[in-house]
Amino acid sequence: MALELNAFGYRMVVSPEYGGTVLRADWKNRNGKWLTILEPLERPQDAMNAGCFLMAPFANRIHGGRFCFEGEDVQFPMNRPRSNMACHGFARDFDWQVLRQSTDAVLIGCKPEAVGYPWHFSITQNMSLSPAGITIVLELQNLGASPLPFGFGLHPWFPRPTGTTLTFRSTGAYRQDDLGLPVYDLEPQPAFDEASPQPLERTGSIDRCFTGWNPKKARIEWPSRRMAVDLSAGGALRHLHVYLPENRSVFCAEPVSHAPDAINRPELGAAAAMTVLSPHETLKGYMTMQAFQI
Predict the structure, then answer these.
(1) Which of 77, 103, 190, 293 has its CA 20 to 30 A from that of 214?
(2) Carries keyword Manganese (predicted)?
């Protein structure tokens, strides 16, 4: 059963049953018209294609779905077997519980367990509406008996009509190997430069992780709708992953805590790495989307 929050000129529909996924998020402009912030998700079971879903206990991809930590080999569920990848974790595959709810906020939680994954953790999403926008706060706790690496991120899908721009500051995107996974060298991506923004239809397809995202803000502008959104993040969400598919008029700007496959690529450095949590230690991060008229 989906839950709806409606306050302060924002509304959001959430499905605890389908991985705590946000099915839609809208903003009311000064004329009283509701405009979409996220690409609406009509069928919750299609959460990989619209709305906004959680990635945990890791974000993006792990090659082969496996890694070694302190001498222990770990195998994640392989949900992308054709490309030999585990992708976006598995927390979204579970039914979440509503822990607290009001007209402008909901707290949901889950303790995911997966076959072949020996570790235990809990995670909550605190979703709220305020005059400052829509905020999702993530908190993951290591319930295991030993230190373990964790990561998470949020995967919002935004509409991409003609003229849409995305701008932010970063030191660059990781270069990619033949698997589309990061290598240490960085390269600039001028299409997202605040000084000279380009419509996303000129950018072509992209699936890249940006590091040195500072400040942790990005602006999305939809001139055809006279609307913009300021996306901001904090806490452990220190990278921005940008995805523009070839065949759809959507794009993703995903705040994440680590680079793709970072657990297998220590040469990327500490800034790219997953976070090792001691027993009962927590990892926290948040994303806010604030809409305004242009």
Answers:
(1) 293
(2) no
Q: Around Cβ 61, how many Cβ atoms within 10 Å? A: 22
Query: Residue 2 has what pLDDT?
Result: 93
Q: What is the pLDDT of residue 44?
A: 72
The letter for the amino acid at 23 is L
User: What digits encode the pLDDT tens for the residues 55-68?
Assistant: 999 999 999 988 99
Q: What are the DSSP E strand ranges found in 223-278?
A: 227-235, 239-244, 250-256, 275-277
* DSSP at 248: S
Evaluate whether 287 touches 126 at the Cβ level (below 8 Å): no
Over the Cα atoms of the chain, what is R_g? 18
| Residue whose C-alpha is closest to residue 128's, from 152, 103, 99, 96 | 103
CA-closest candidate to residue 259, choices 201, 188, 143, 173? 173
Query: Which residue is listed with tokens 């070839």?
Result: 246
Confidence of residue 115 (pLDDT cuts 50, 70, 90): low
Q: Which are the contacts of 218, defined by CB distance < 8 A and separation ≥ 6?
A: 166, 167, 168, 230, 231, 232, 240, 253
